[in-house]
Amino acid sequence: MRKKIVAANWKMNLGLNEGSTLVNDILKGLPKLDETRQVVIAPTYVHIGQTAAQLDGKDFISLGAQNCHTEVSGAYTGEVSAPILKSAGVKYVILGHSERREYCKETDAMVASKVNQALANDMKAIFCCGEPLAIRDAGTQNDYVGAQVQAGLFHLSAEQLKNVVIAYEPIWAIGTGRTASSAQAQDMHAHIRSVLSAQYGAAVADNMSILYGGSCKPSNAAELFGCPDVDGGLIGGAALKAEDFLGIIAAM
Ligand code: PGA
User: At the N or C end, where does the chain have fewer CB atoms within 10 A?
Assistant: First the structure.
C-alpha cells in the first residue's frame, strides 16, 4: 500500500532559532504516526544539522533537503552534494521544484541526474512537476506534466522508482493562495498514475505516492487528501507555522 506523506518545504525562510522553535512545536503537537503515514521537514541547508539533531530517533518524521547537486564532489562553490546530505542524516530530497527550474534554470536533464544522485545515496527523491498558467489555460497540462515525468524519471528501473515520491505542483497555485480544486488535482494525479502505469505497469504505479502542492492549507487539505489519487502534500507557506502544518498533518 502506498504511503501518505506530508512534506514541509521551508524554502528560503526562518533563522536558526525560529527553525528550532518550529520543529519543537511540531514535535509537541505531532499525532501518533505509523508506517502508512510519513512527515518530512525540508529546511534550508543551514538548518540541516540542527534539524537532524531534533528529529534524531523520532519515528515517521524525517529530515529532507530542498535540492542537491548533479555531481558527487569537487569545485562547485556554494553547492551541496547528495553524499554530503546523506552524511548529515537527510532522508528525502526535493528535486525539480518549479522555483529551481525557473530561477536556477534547472533542465529536465539536470533534474534527472539529481534524482540519480539522491537514489545512489540511499535517499528518497521528491520529484516535482507542474504546469505554468499558460499551459493550464491552453488545456495541455496533461501532456506537459506527462513529459516532465517521462524526462525526469523514465530512465529509472521499477525498483529504483520505489524510492521516488512525485509532487504535482501547478505553478499557478504555488504561493498564490489559488489552490487547484480537488477535481483538478485528482484529474492530474490520476493522469500521472496512468503515465507511470503505461511505462512500469499498474502495480508499480499504484504503489507510488503522488503529493499535491500549491497553497495547501488546513482548510483545504482534507478535501484534497480525500481524493483517491492524492497521497498527501508538499507544503510551502503553511509549513512555516506549527499550528497550520499540524492541521495539515491531521488532515492526512
Ligand atoms: P505553497 O508552496 O504551499 O506556499 O504554495 C508549495 C511549494 O512550492 O512546495
Answer: N
Q: Report which of 139, 134, 149 is spatially closest to residue 96, judged by C-alpha positions.
A: 149
Q: Give the pLDDT of residue 122.
A: 98
Q: How far is the CA of 201 from the centre of ligand 1 (A)?
A: 30
Average pLDDT over residues 205-211: 98
How far apart, in whole angstroms, are the C-alpha atoms of residue 53 and residue 17?
14
Q: Return the pLDDT at 70.
A: 98
* Catalytic-labelled residue, pool 99, 106, 131, 169: 169
- As to burial, measured by CB atoms within 10 angstroms (0-12 exposed, 13-18 middle, 19+ buried), residue 116 is middle
Binding site membership of 170 for ligand 1 (Cβ less than 6 Å) = no
pTM of model > 0.70: yes
CB-based burial label for 73 (10 Å; 0-12, 13-18, 19+): exposed
Of 97, 99, 106, 189, which residue is the catalytic one? 97
Identify whether 97 is a catalytic site residue: yes
Task: Specify the number of domains making up the chain.
Answer: 1
**Residue 46: domain span:** 4-251
Question: What does the pLDDT look like over 58-100, one tens digit per residue?
Answer: 999 999 999 999 999 999 999 999 999 999 999 999 999 999 9
Write out pLDDT tens, residues 155-200: 999 999 999 999 999 999 998 888 889 999 999 999 999 999 999 9
- Give the nearest ligand 1 atom to 176 CA: 5
Domain of residue 164, CATH code? 3.20.20.70
**Residue 236 C-alpha to ligand 1 middle, in angstroms?**
4
